[in-house]
Write a structure and sequence with these properties.
Low-confidence stretches: none
Strand content: 25-35%
Number of helices: 3
Structural class: alpha+beta
Radius of gyration: 14 Å
Length: about 130
C-alpha cells in the first residue's frame, strides 16, 4: 500500500525512531480520509512506549489514556486517528506476527526500520477491512 508521507511527518517519525533506538518508538497518525479512500496524514503524536527493559527493543504499547486524550483534543476538528507508527530496531520494516495480529482493519500502520546508523526504510500497511 502506498501512503504519501509528507516531509514533516517523515522527519518527525525518523527523529522519534533514532531517539528511541535501540528501543522501539511509537506514535499516533492524525489526518483525514476522503470519501474515495485517499489518506492524508497531517501530523503525528509521539507516544511514550510503555514497554520497559529488554522487551522494549521488540515491542511497543501506547498508553490508552494518551490515545483517549488525543481523541478528545481533535474531536470536532475534522481530523481523526488514522493509524499508528512504530520502529523496528535492527529489523526490516515489515509487520511482525504480533503487529499483524494487533492491526485494526482500516487503520494505517507505518513501520520504520532503524539501526544505529539511522532509519533505513519506512513502509506503510493497512489490514484489509474485510479480513
Amino acid at each position: 500500500m502506498e501512503i504519501e508521507l509528507g516531509e514533516i511527518t517523515t522527519c518527525q517519525m525518523t527523529l522519534a525512531a533514532i531517539a528511541a533506538y535501540p528501543g522501539e518508538c511509537c506514535g499516533i497518525l492524525l489526518g483525514k480520509t476522503s470519501e474515495s479512500g485517499e489518506v492524508e496524514i497531517l501530523e503525528t503524536r509521539e507516544a511514550h512506549n510503555q514497554i520497559q527493559g529488554a522487551q522494549k527493543s521488540a515491542h511497543f504499547r501506547v498508553d490508552p489514556l494518551f490515545l483517549y486524550q488525543v481523541e478528545r483534543e481533535i474531536e470536532g476538528s475534522g481530523i481523526e486517528v488514522i493509524g499508528f507508527y512504530h520502529s523496528h530496531p535492527d529489523c526490516a520494516a515489515v509487520p511482525s506476527d504480533e503487529d499483524y495480529e494487533n492491526m485494526v482493519p482500516g487503520l494505517i500502520y507505518v513501520i520504520l526500520s532503524v539501526t544505529k546508523d539511522g532509519v533505513k526504510d519506512i513502509r506503510s500497511y493497512k489490514k484489509d477491512i474485510n479480513y
